[in-house]
Amino acid sequence: MTDFYYPVLSDEYNLPMYVLGVGARDREWHFIRDEGYPNYQIIYCTRGQGVLRLGGEEFTINAGDAFYLPPKVPHEYYPVEDIWETHWITFDGREVPATLEHIKLEKAKVFHINDVNSVDAIFKKIVYLMKTNYYYCGHQCSVYLYQFLIELHRVVNLQNGSQDGQKLNQLQPVIDYIDKNYQKELTLVELAELIDLSPQYLCRLFKECLNLRPFEFLARKRIQQAKLLLLEDKLNINEIAAKVGYNDCSYFCAVFKKHEMLSPAEFRSLHKKAGG
């Protein structure tokens, strides 16, 4: 497959992120960029083998391998076989740095994609849209770019075998236990003992995997269940508080408002059917 597009942009520059170029080559070219490339790039291999030189190191890039290149980072890459098919996307936008930081691409990086087909399906949607060249294709490509980055994060970091995947697997029994017992009075020691960890390490594991402390995760679960009960409109606020694990209704209301910016009563009123 050899196909590439560089769209002419107009008001896409005002979007949080936008695609500047997308393409595939079944024999990737030899690029030497001593000054780097001006925009963000993600390149992944679907067939064959090539070499990337980056930061004084040399990396062999096989099928399933990928590399992220921030703007202005010097690099060189080239094929070492007759076939070295790469798919690539270049992009920019004001929200790109924060998004890349969130998905752990803060600097140039070589990594392996556990499920290339998953991200490639989104990549192909972007290529197809570029071919249509209709007025709003750049806007739709922006949506797919965000989807591509989030899916890339999932298949790289949350699959079995990756460090984050192993940590999440380790944490899963605690998550399952909270899902089934959120209405009970739970303790940190009790949760930690489920996977034979200290309470301190459990907190660290939650923070690393979910960016939440254990009781923040528990509160979110309780509030989510409370919202479902409020929508049913069968129980009063006191009963709902008790049903989701809060003995003190005032405290439940304070926690609910912190998360939803509405009191439980206001949430119920806002979503109540007309004439209900």
Order of helices and strands: EEEEEEEHEHHHHHHHHH
Number of strands: 8
Strand percent estimate: 15-25%
Question: Average pLDDT value?
Answer: 91
Give the N-terminus to C-terminus distance in angstroms.
58 Å
Cα radius of gyration in angstroms = 24 Å
Number of helices: 10
Task: Write structural notes for this entry.
- The structure is a single chain.
- The protein is of the alpha+beta class and 276 residues long.
- It is built from 10 helices and 8 strands.
- Helix 4 packs across helix 6 and helix 7 crosses helix 10.
- Helix content is 46%, strand content 22%.
Describe this structure in a few short sentences.
It is built from 10 helices and 8 strands. It is α+β, with helices and mostly antiparallel strands.
What does the secondary structure layout of this molecule look like, with pairings?
Blueprint: E1 3-5, E2 18-25, E3 31-33, E4 40-54, E5 57-62, E6 65-69, E7 75-92, H1 96-102, E8 109-112, H2 116-132, H3 137-157, H4 163-181, H5 188-194, H6 199-210, H7 214-232, H8 237-243, H9 249-260, H10 264-270
Antiparallel strand pairs: 1-2, 2-7, 3-7, 4-5, 4-6, 4-7, 6-8
